[in-house]
Amino acid sequence: MAIVVFGAGGGLGLSLTKALKQKFNDSTLIAVSRHPITERVAGVHYTTIEDYTSTHLHAWVNEFSERGEVLEGVVSTIGMLHDDDTFPEKQLDDLNEANLSKLFSVNAVMPLMILKACKSLLDKKQSRFFVQLSAKVGSIEDNYLGGWYSYRGSKAALNMLLKTAAIELKRSHKSFVVAAIHPGTTDTQLSKPFQKRVPDDKLYSPALSAERIVKVIEGLKPEDSGGLFHWNGERLPY
Ligand SMILES: NC(=O)c1ccc[n+]([C@@H]2O[C@H](COP(=O)([O-])OP(=O)(O)OC[C@H]3O[C@@H](n4cnc5c(N)ncnc54)[C@H](OP(=O)(O)O)[C@@H]3O)[C@@H](O)[C@H]2O)c1
C-alpha cells in the first residue's frame, strides 16, 4: 500500500511527509515535488515532476503503476497565496486577470487534475483517501472580513470541486474519502508576509500542523467524504 504526497517540497509538505512516514510506517511513502528535495526522511521515495498538469501527471501515474503498489491515499498540499508578482488583494481595484487566473489554476485546477489522474489508480476496496489542504478563508459562510479575492475565491472553488468529486466517487468507491483540511496558520513561506498580525499562540509550527492533519486523516470515515475539516477535526461550513 502506498501513500503519495504532492507538493512535498513546501513547508507543510516536508513536515507532512515526515509525520505520515511515522504514522503509516507499514505503507510505502512517495513524496512528489517540482524540485529535488534535500531535507529527506529515511525510507521515503522521492520523485520530481515538471509541473502538476495532465501530461506530467499521466507520466507519473504510469510510473506509479509500474511499481505494482496499491494506492492507499493521496495528500496534496498544492496551493499559493503570493509570489513575486502576486499579492492578496485588499479591494476590487487591486484585482487583475493574471493574478486571479494564476491562483485559480494553482489552488483549484491543479488539485483536481491530481485527483483526476489518481482516479485510475484507485482500488475500489483498498484505497482510502484523497486529502487536499484548503483554507478556512475559502468558506463562503465564514467570510466576514472580505479581501484576499483570488485566494478566497480559488479555495472556495476548490472546496466545491472536491465536494462534487466526492459525490461522484461515493457511487463507485464506497469506502473512499475525499476531504479538504484547513491546517491553521502555519509558519511557512506562504504565511510569512502576514505573520505580524497573528498572535504567537495562533501561529503553528509545520511539525505541529502536520501532526494535527495526520490525526484528522486517520479519523476520516466514508461518511466524511466531501467535507472541509478544521485541523482539530471539526467540520467547517462551506
Ligand atoms: N501556511 C499556512 O498558514 C496555511 C494556512 C491555510 C492553508 N494553507 C494551505 O496549505 C497548503 C500548503 O501550504 P504551505 O504553507 O506549506 O505553503 P508552501 O510552503 O508555499 O507550499 C505550497 C506547495 O504548493 C506547491 N506550489 C506552490 N506554488 C505553485 C505553483 N505556482 N505551481 C505548482 N505548485 C505550486 C509547491 O509544491 P512543490 O513541492 O512542487 O514545489 C509547494 O510545496 C496550501 O494549499 C495552502 O493554501 C496554508
UniProtKB/TrEMBL annotation:
GO MF annotations in UniProt: oxidoreductase activity
Coiled coil: none
Domain of life: Bacteria
Alphabetized InterPro entries for the sequence: Fungal_SecMetab_SDRs (IPR051468), NAD(P)-bd_dom_sf (IPR036291), SDR_fam (IPR002347)
GO cellular component, one term: cytoplasm
Protein name as annotated: Short-chain dehydrogenase
